[in-house]
Amino acid sequence: MLKISHNVTLADWEIDLQFIRAQGAGGQNVNKVASAVHLRFDIHRSTLPAYYKERLLKLNDQRISKEGVVVIKAQQHRTQDKNRDDALNRLKELILKAGYQPKRRKPTRPTRSSQNKRMDKKTQRGQIKRNRGKVQL
């Protein structure tokens, strides 16, 4: 069971884990041991609240297919356990990222004093530039 937040958890049947051989260098061990993990998570079949499902499907993430399946491949570590934990943590982070909603910005206006200061600086700067002209004799 994967705990996402206080209210949201994912059961083991919702997450499909397959162990495969890792790519890349690893010596003799890499050809014998299936230490990499393919995690598949179907958003539509899951027990996630509708809010999370909608937000996940709207995310522009390459790990989410058009059919709504999250595919995560973890092969950074040398052991199955660490790779499985890494894949589950990445799934958890993805779901939390989808559930995060930034605060709405309240539009503010500059104060009259700040507007006056800005205009005074502009006129002062313009005066300096005007004084740079040719000197008439």
Automatic annotation (TrEMBL):
- Point to the regions of Basic residues compositional bias: 127-137
E.C. number(s) listed in UniProt = 3.1.1.29
Question: Which residue intervals make up region (Disordered)?
Answer: 97-137
PROSITE patterns hit by this protein? RF_PROK_I
Keyword Amino-acid biosynthesis in record: no
The Prokaryotic-type class I peptide chain release factors domain, residue ranges = 21-37
Q: Name one Pfam family in it.
A: RF-1
The lineage is: Bacteria, Pseudomonadati, Pseudomonadota, Gammaproteobacteria, Cellvibrionales
UniProt keyword list: Hydrolase
GO molecular function terms noted in the UniProt entry? peptidyl-tRNA hydrolase activity; ribosome binding; translation release factor activity
Enzyme class per UniProt: hydrolase
Please give the name of this protein.
Aminoacyl-tRNA hydrolase
Would you indicate the residue range of the signal peptide?
A: none
Name any Gene Ontology BP term: rescue of stalled ribosome
Keyword Hydrolase found:
yes
The record's similarity note reads:
Belongs to the prokaryotic/mitochondrial release factor family.
Instruction: Write out the transmembrane intervals.
Output: none
